[in-house]
């Protein structure tokens, strides 16, 4: 059994799992560890995610922070599990992650911070975790009130929902969101208008900093069509912006 396999097995031990079930906050940092074990990139990244999956309990944990993961593009499956009751997530310095999983499925998530995800280029529709349903209302991010993106320099597109999804009474998106912050994401030029209109009844603060393109689109002329497109149903929405 290799050193990595032993680490996975240790994380799965019943005694450790029992202890972890009592935790409310868990911080997992890969900084200073990834180069200590000489494994192939594929097997190493897969096993590291197995370690994370084994460490994180689904029911008691309220706050999770993953930092410095630089050996793979996959985030743990628990990030899109509706059985996960985490209230706060921090994703920091994930240098290989290029897309985000269906975090919108998490039923109790209130705060999400995405910092220094260097290869992130597209936040796709899968981020919301919307799946087809019969008669039930589908709610993406049902409890989220604060969403922050910081220093995602290559992030170019935040995919919007469709016109049908915006008009559908069976789909609710971020109904509790009050604060959206986008800081130093210099490649992003446009926000998802239909998505934000869907969430606009609760949104109170839109903060844009360090993105000249976004400030040019939304901040320089508050009477312009782009800003009106977002704020037309929510006169209480406040825009705060700084180009740098």
Structural class: alpha/beta
> Given the structure, what is the number of helices?
7
Record the strand order, biggest sheet.
1-2-3-4-7-10-11-12
- Largest sheet, if any? 8 strands, parallel
Radius of gyration over all CA atoms, rounded: 19 Å
Tell me the span between the first and last alpha carbons: 51 Å
Instruction: Please count the beta strands (DSSP E, at least 2 residues each).
Output: 12
Order of helices and strands: HHEHEEEEEEEHEEHEHHE
Into which percentage range does the β-strand content fall? Answer: 15-25%
Quick check: average pLDDT?
82
Ranges where pLDDT stays below 50 over 5 or more residues in a row are 36-43
Question: How much helical structure, as a percent, in the residues?
Answer: 10-25%
- What's the overall geometry? globular
């Amino acid at each position: 059994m290799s050193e990595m396999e032993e680490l996975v097995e240790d994380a799965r031990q019943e005694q450790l799992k029992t202890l972890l079930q009592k935790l409310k906050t868990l911080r997992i940092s890969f900084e200073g560890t990834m180069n200590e074990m000489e494994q192939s990139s594929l097997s190493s990244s897969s096993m590291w995610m197995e370690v994370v999956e084994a460490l994180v309990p689904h029911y008691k944990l309220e706050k999770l922070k993953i930092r410095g993961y630089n050996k793979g593009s996959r985030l743990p499956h628990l990030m899109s599990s509706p059985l996960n009751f985490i209230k706060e997530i921090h994703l920091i310095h994930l240098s290989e992650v290029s897309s985000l999983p269906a975090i919108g499925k998490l039923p109790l998530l209130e705060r999400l911070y995405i910092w220094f995800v260097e290869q992130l280029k597209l936040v796709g529709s899968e981020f919301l975790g919307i799946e087809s349903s019969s008669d039930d209302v589908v709610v993406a991010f049902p409890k989220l009130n604060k969403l922050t993106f910081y220093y995602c320099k290559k992030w170019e597109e935040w995919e919007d929902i469709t016109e049908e999804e915006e008009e559908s009474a069976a789909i609710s998106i971020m109904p509790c969101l009050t604060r959206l912050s986008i800081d130093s994401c210099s490649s992003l030029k446009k926000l998802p208008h239909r998505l934000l209109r869907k969430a606009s009844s609760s949104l109170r603060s839109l903060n844009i900093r360090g993105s000249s393109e976004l400030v040019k689109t939304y901040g320089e002329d508050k009477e312009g069509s782009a800003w009106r497109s977002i704020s037309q149903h929510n006169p209480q929405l406040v825009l705060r912006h700084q180009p740098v």
